[in-house]
Amino acid sequence: MTELRIDPDRPVLIAGPTASGKSALALEIAEKQGGVVVNADASQVFDCWRIVTARPSVEEEARAPHRLYGHVAYDAPYSAGHWLREVVPLLSGTQRPIIVGGTGLYFNALTEGMAEIPPTPAEVRAEGDSMSLEDLLSALDPQTAARIDVQNRARVQRAWEVLTATGRALADWQDDTPPPPLPLNACSALVLESSKDWLEARIRKRFRAMLDQGAMDEVEAMRDRFDPSLPSCKAIGAPELMAYATGRMTLEEAEESAAIATRRFAKRQRTWFRARMEKWRKISPEIGYQLS
Question: Which residues of this UniProt protein bind ATP (predicted)?
Answer without folding.
Answer: 16-23
